[in-house]
Write a structure and sequence with these properties.
Order of helices and strands: EEEEEEHEEEEEEEEEEHEHHEEEEEE
CATH topology of the largest domain: Lysozyme-like
Distance between the termini: 28 Å
Number of helices: 4
Strand content: 25-35%
Number of strands: 23
Radius of gyration: 19 Å
Shape: globular
Helix content: 10-25%
CATH class of the largest domain: Alpha Beta
CATH superfamily of the largest domain: Peptidoglycan recognition protein-like
Strand order of the largest sheet: 4-8-7-12-6-17
Largest sheet: 6 strands, mixed
């Protein structure tokens, strides 16, 4: 499978993906586009969500893409147009992330509830093998204990990562965020079942799996690992030349990375400038 973008439309294996255009757009989206915002739909399928984005009963929500559990993709808004996916949102000193981000929705029920000893969606669909965890911002039901969440199928996750890599290359996306990052306290997507750190590493590390290394410190005197994306942030340590790191997020020319130990396992996180990596 191979994705490409032509005239702000997504193509797969040389053909346009299914298009169900939403009327709910907000003018031109600037390029470069700083952020990619990930969501779950709370719904049954990509098509049902895409059709909702077309519905007259919809109060005005939309997204650029919806990816189904089987990896099929529907485009609802062109990548050069604002989609209404973020709502009330703030990040990196910006408000109204609709005007600064591309939005991808993943077909997923999100939080589940126990009924008759089974974890079920809000519509009563049983999820046989849920992901059990507490949300980092607190569970939507207010309970302070692990609850069930629908897992994301590997094919859906991998397709989303492949498309995200293409969006980074085409539109200069610098950072990937969840709706629960930019609208903390009232949104819970993508939730704890979505491995955001791994997703970012797949996208910014340029790999489709966990094999191989990431990037290498390529400066003889070593490279400062900092607490944030800039020289004003304190130095955590000096990384010697040859140190392996795995990118997990980006802010301009600065990369948030996991420092890998001799066994290839993450040992520390921090920020480095990408000019000194190869």
């Amino acid at each position: 499978m191979a994705f490409a973008i032509s005239a702000n439309q997504l193509r797969r294996d040389g053909k346009p993906v299914t298009s169900l255009p939403s009327p709910y757009t907000g003018g031109a989206l600037p390029s470069p586009t700083r952020f990619l915002a990930m969501h779950f739909t709370y719904g049954a399928s990509a098509r049902s969500s895409a059709e909702w984005f077309q519905s007259k009963d919809n109060p005005g929500s939309s997204a650029h893409l919806v990816i189904d559990r089987d990896g099929s993709v529907i485009q609802c808004v062109r990548f050069d147009k604002v989609a209404w996916h973020a709502g009330k949102s703030t990040w990196r000193g910006l408000s109204g992330l609709n005007h600064h981000s591309i939005g991808i929705e993943l077909a997923n029920w999100g939080p589940l509830h126990l009924a008759g000893g089974e974890w079920k969606s809000h519509t009563g669909v049983t999820i046989a093998h849920p992901h059990i965890a507490k949300h980092k911002n607190g569970n939507p039901n207010g309970e302070n204990c692990p609850i069930g969440w629908e897992p994301y199928p590997p094919v859906q996750f991998q397709v989303a990562a492949e498309i995200a890599r293409l969006l980074v290359k085409t539109y200069g996306v610098e950072e990937i965020v969840g709706h629960d990052d930019i609208s903390a306290g009232w949104k819970w997507d993508t939730g704890p079942a979505f491995d955001m750190a791994h997703f970012r590493s797949l996208v910014f590390g340029g790999r489709a799996d966990n094999d191989g290394v990431g990037l290498t410190v390529d400066v003889a005197e070593g490279l400062n690992l900092r607490t944030g994306p800039g020289t004003t942030f304190p130095v955590l340590r000096l990384l010697p030349a040859g140190t392996l790191v795995e990118p997990i997020e980006r802010d301009g020319r600065w990369l948030g990375v996991s420092v890998l130990n001799a066994q290839g396992q993450p040992s520390q996180t921090g920020w480095v400038h990408d000019h000194y990596l190869s």
